Amino acid sequence: MASSMSSTASTASSASTVETAGSTRTALIIDGSYAMIGARSLGGKIDYIKLRAALEELAKAPFGDCWFFDQNPSAQRLNASLTAEYHRLKFAPPDGPQFQVSLFPMKKYSCHCKRCGNHFTQNVQKGVDNGIATKILSLAYENVRMW
Fold it and tell me: According to the lineage, what is the superkingdom (predicted)?
């Protein structure tokens, strides 16, 4: 969903136009977890090189800046192919989509079951949402014009 940035948390990618000193810059922000969930529900994997090219065509402008935000892989998710995928996202075309990758650690959340009295901790994603919000605010400070 690149036609506009919205306050909806489920937006996997957003694009915006930034005007600075007579020039226009287009930026792309991707929430990696939502992108992965969307790809999984469609039964596939995202080719970020093709995605970036398609969104740039839709925007009728090349992206000056691209950010990919995701959670830092936990020990259960950490594997060589996932690490390699994060590195490939940083490669310049034609080898990669040239994203700036920001990975955030999971935070522990203490839980208590009122029915059985069990206490446990659960990992929750908070850093990614804060990172995306901070990036959007910094773009807004630079006079972001939404399209």
Answer: Eukaryota
Q: Which of 102, 122, 104 is nearest to 112 (CA)?
A: 122
Structure-model confidence comparison of residues 110 and 6, the more confident one: 110
Predicted TM-score of the model (pTM) = 0.73
Distance CA 11, CA 34 (A): 7
Q: CA-CA distance, 45 to 128, in Å (whole number)? A: 21
How far apart CA 26 and CA 144 sit, in angstroms, is 9
Evaluate whether residue 36 is within a structural domain: yes
Tens of pLDDT along 86-116?
Answer: 999 999 989 999 999 999 988 888 999 999 9
Q: Is 7 inside any structural domain?
A: no
What is the extent of the structural domain holding 34?
Answer: 13-146
User: Is 103 a member of any domain?
Assistant: yes
Evaluate whether residue 4 is within a structural domain. no
Q: Quick one: tokens of 7?
A: 């306050």
